[in-house]
Amino acid sequence: MLHIIKSSPYATHALSHCLAYATPDSVIVLINDAVLGALADSPLGAALFTDNRSVYVLEEDVMARGVQAHLHPQVKQIDMQGLVQLTEDHVTQMTW
């Protein structure tokens, strides 16, 4: 299942709720302010990568917030084309 998180983990509980429902084969994409959840020092950073989940951030949102150098080392950056490809690859999706 593809989970797309849009809101900051400091403003809502969307990311923590997503992690409660995500399975080991889930793919998580953080966009907009949710990219702050992928920072190396984020309280939820370690939880994102349990079960070896695939975690992506939208590159343009990371650059817009100036946090490229602070991302968790396991997070993968994708562009808009990569996001479209993930949505095509996953029939089941949920946006938080």
Summarize this structure as a short list of keywords or feature phrases.
5-stranded parallel sheet, alpha/beta, single chain, 5 strands, Hypothetical Protein Ychn, Chain: A, globular, 96 residues
Number of helices: 4
* CATH-derived topology: Hypothetical Protein Ychn, Chain: A
Strand content: 15-25%
Terminus-to-terminus distance: 13 Å
Strand adjacency order, main sheet: 4-3-2-1-5
Q: What overall geometry do the principal axes of the alpha carbons give?
A: globular
Identify the CATH architecture: 3-Layer(aba) Sandwich
How many whole angstroms does the radius of gyration measure? Answer: 12 Å
Helix content: 25-40%
Major sheet attributes: 5 strands, parallel
Pfam families: DsrH
InterPro entries: DsrEFH-like, Sulphur_relay_TusB/DsrH
Protein name: Sulfurtransferase complex subunit TusB
Provide a descriptive summary of the structure in words.
The chain is an alpha/beta fold and 96 residues long. It has a single domain, classed as DsrEFH-like (Hypothetical Protein Ychn, Chain: A), CATH 3.40.1260.10. It is 30% helix and 20% strand. It has a 5-stranded parallel β-sheet with strand order 4-3-2-1-5. The model has no long low-confidence stretch (mean pLDDT 95). Pfam families: DsrH.
